[in-house]
Automatic annotation (TrEMBL):
Pfam families: UDG
Annotated signal sequence range: none
Molecular function as annotated in GO: 4 iron, 4 sulfur cluster binding; DNA-deoxyinosine glycosylase activity; metal ion binding; uracil DNA N-glycosylase activity
One GO biological process term: base-excision repair
Keywords annotated in UniProt: 4Fe-4S, DNA damage, DNA repair, Hydrolase, Iron, Iron-sulfur, Metal-binding
Annotated organism of origin: Tuwongella immobilis
Name the record gives this protein: Type-5 uracil-DNA glycosylase
Residues covered by the Uracil-DNA glycosylase-like domain: 53-222
Family: Belongs to the uracil-DNA glycosylase (UDG) superfamily. Type 5 (UDGb) family.
Amino acid sequence: MSEINPMPLPLLTLHEQMIACRACARLVEWRETVARDRRAAYRNEEYWGKPIVGFGDPLARILVLGLAPGAHGGNRTGRVFTGDRSGDWLYGSLHRAGLANQPHATGRDDGLQLTDVYVSVCVRCVPPGNQPTPQERQTCLPFLEQELALLPNIRVIVCLGSFAWDSAIRLLKSRYPVAKKPTFAHLAEAIVGPFRLVGSYHPSQQNTFTGKLTEAMQDAVWDRVKLLSSASFA
Ligand code: SF4
């Protein structure tokens, strides 16, 4: 595992701006309500209860894009896909693929390091029912746009679920032509400007418990993505 690359100052500054954001009244209220009420299992923990920033290798070629932080995952621990079953699934699969130094993600100080992968979300505050409104997505997407602009090597964007797929296309089509909106599917691919989008079913419990997303299907995503990210630089 290579040394982790430190976050550059512009990215850290952007992250500070994200964490201070209170633009969406409904989401601010919800993230703080969840943090105050807490799940019984985490009663004695102090929840993060703020927006979530991206995490990983700032020199990554692969951006993994989720919907929003989990109520008792990212919203609790303060790191994207950390502290819930979706995160266990995601980082477990990245570890199998050689892109993470460990399979578990329990908290911001758990030692997790990603190589060539940066993980972020479309909406940075936990939404009720995991469903942000179109206006909330529109309000938050500029943060992702700014984050992407500060990740100079990204070539492949892995969209976890149709919401992330639609959001990535929405964000990129303002700068690059998209003739016909590509349809989301597991392992779907689309070229938008300099980026290759790859679809993956979201590693939600609903998908992983029912077998809609299996480990083999998830591993196939990373196999393909590693090939594409290398090919982009050939
Ligand atoms: S969802 Fe985004 S824009 Fe809305 S309050 Fe959270 S960080 Fe700010």
